[in-house]
TrEMBL record:
GO function terms (MF aspect): ATP binding; ATP hydrolysis activity; branched-chain amino acid transmembrane transporter activity; glycosyltransferase activity
Stated name of the protein: Mannosyltransferase
Lineage: Bacteria, Pseudomonadati, Pseudomonadota, Gammaproteobacteria, Oceanospirillales
Similarity comment text for this entry: Belongs to the ABC transporter superfamily.
InterPro entries: AAA+_ATPase, ABC_transporter-like_ATP-bd, ABC_transporter-like_CS, BCAA_Transport_ATP-bd_LivF, P-loop_NTPase
Domain ABC transporter: 8-239
Length: 239
């Protein structure tokens, strides 16, 4: 992996749910063409980190820079328009629209420097969606809805995409298709922040991994360094 330019820099990010202090100074960055995974136990603060970056849970302290533009106080729609896409854990499809119509809803003209994706590109990744293109999104399987949500976000041509547990509940064959898609994003100039419970997938697709523990980054390094650190794995990932 060659050295990359920083695209997204998160520094000392704090977040609260009411009085509960959840993020205690999360710091990490994502370079151009990088896939960075956030790993950790359930409840460690991975999803909250993604939500805080998107302004869905407003950060109470800290800085979020996308290409040197400060987003820590920006509204979610501004963050989205500045080039960050978010695929939440919950599948979000328009149930009464067809698969194809759902995809068309996501289409936007690419900003400078971003890849222009087409609906046909999405069908090439996920032929199953092509087969189901005229079916109402409410009637396709959960796994297919997951793919659809991810594809719709990509059609907004983001610079960086935050993806929360995309392979949760998917059949093994689709899990590997999602893995392929994520690696291809990197090749096509889209950076990725991935929250992934399946360690094998995360290690395969990531250029770097961050381990989240109690709302902080407790390790940052290559997948190889992580696998060599047995104490870290035992303490923070329970493997
Ligand atoms: N909407 C919420 N209200 C209050 N507490 C929450 C909410 N969402 C998450 N939490 C708490 O915040 C902590 C971090 O959660 P989360 O970021 O979802 O963890 P992860 O994605 O790593 O499993 C957990 O202790 C969880 O119970
Ligand atoms: Mg989560």
């Amino acid at each position: 992996m060659t050295t990359t330019n920083t695209l997204l820099a998160v520094n000392d990010l704090h977040a609260h749910y009411g009085k509960s202090h959840i993020l205690h100074g999360v710091t990490f960055d994502v370079g151009q063409n990088e896939v960075v995974s956030l790993l950790g136990r359930n409840g460690s603060g991975r999803s909250t980190t993604l939500k805080a970056i998107m302004g869905i849970v407003p950060p109470t302290q800290g800085s979020i820079l996308l290409n040197d533009r400060q987003l820590a106080k920006a509204k979610s729609y501004e963050i989205c328009r500045s080039g960050i896409a978010y695929v939440p854990e919950e599948r979000e499809v328009f149930a009464n629209l067809t698969v194809d119509e759902n995809l068309r809803m996501g289409e936007q003209a690419a900003k400078k420097g971003a890849t222009q994706w087409t609906v046909e590109d999405m069908f090439a990744y996920f032929p199953r969606l092509k087969e189901r293109r005229n079916v109402k999104a409410g009637s396709i399987s959960g796994g297919e809805q997951q793919m659809l949500t991810m594809c719709r976000s990509l059609l907004g041509n983001p610079l960086v995409i935050l993806i929360d547990e995309p392979t949760e509940g998917l059949a093994p064959k689709i899990v590997s298709a999602v893995g392929e898609c994520i690696m291809d994003l990197q090749r096509k100039n889209v950076s990725v922040v991935l929250v992934e419970q399946k360690l094998t997938i995360a290690l395969k697709v990531s250029s770097r991994v961050c381990v989240v523990g109690h709302g902080q980054i407790v390790f940052e390094g290559t997948p190889q360094h992580l696998m060599e650190d047995e104490k870290l794995l035992a303490d923070w990932l329970a493997v």
